[in-house]
Specification:
The complex is a heterodimer of chains A (about 110) and B (about 110).
Chain A: E1 4-7, E2 10-13, E3 19-25, E4 31-38, E5 42-49, E6 56-57, E7 65-67, E8 73-78, E9 87-94, E10 103-104, E11 108-112
Parallel strand pairs in A: 2-11
Antiparallel strand pairs in A: 1-3, 3-8, 4-5, 4-9, 5-6, 7-8, 9-10, 9-11
Chain B: E1 3-7, E2 10-14, E3 19-26, E4 31-38, E5 44-50, E6 56-58, E7 64-68, E8 73-78, E9 87-95, E10 103-104, E11 108-113
Parallel strand pairs in B: 2-11
Antiparallel strand pairs in B: 1-3, 3-8, 4-5, 4-9, 6-7, 7-8, 9-10, 9-11
The chains are: A mainly beta (about 110), B mainly beta (about 110).
Chain lengths: ~110, ~110
Amino acid sequence: NAGVTQTPKFRVLKTGQSMTLLCAQDMNHEYMYWYRQDPGMGLRLIHYSVGEGTTAKGEVPDGYNVSRLKKQNFLLGLESAAPSQTSVYFCASKQGGTAYEQYFGPGTRLTVT
Amino acid sequence: AQSVTQLGSHVSVSEGALVLLRCNYSSSVPPYLFWYVQYPNQGLQLLLKYTSAATLVKGINGFEAEFKKSETSFHLTKPSAHMSDAAEYFCAVTRGSGNTPLVFGKGTRLSVIA
């Protein structure tokens, strides 16, 4: 099993450009999450999904959109990138149920100039 | 609402010394608590979790944590630090019911000095 994979690993965007980050998991997990990690801020939840076709806002959703058309994939979109979106983005997934752990991908380092 | 406070953004210990990373939580209902570790340029991986069973939880790599309801704490300890323990550690909390997302602390970077 590959676990949770993220594409791409690195990306540099100019202000105003758009892009999509792809997260894929092969563990048949119901729940998927997108976080951003910034120095001294820990991980902050952007959006999450509790099943195929569903999405919900997290703590910092502004400027991002998501889609979960297939159970194994969770896409994070930036329609018009801003320098404040420079960050490391992590995807995670888990089985249904509160007690289960989240499995994290390796991260995408995004720089917006 | 739940929240997590990790005391100390950076902790430095000598190799072989006790590791103590502090985590206090705020939750209006019984919580589930997690410790994750992040090695440089990697994602997070689970060290251990508390899910209302034994209050002393043992995890991987010799780490353990004790849930103390009276102190609303879930501190992470390891008796003897190894160089390989140098990483960032995150405490996280969620409610013990429903499927609310995890709330993470800001992290504590552990340095181990030879």
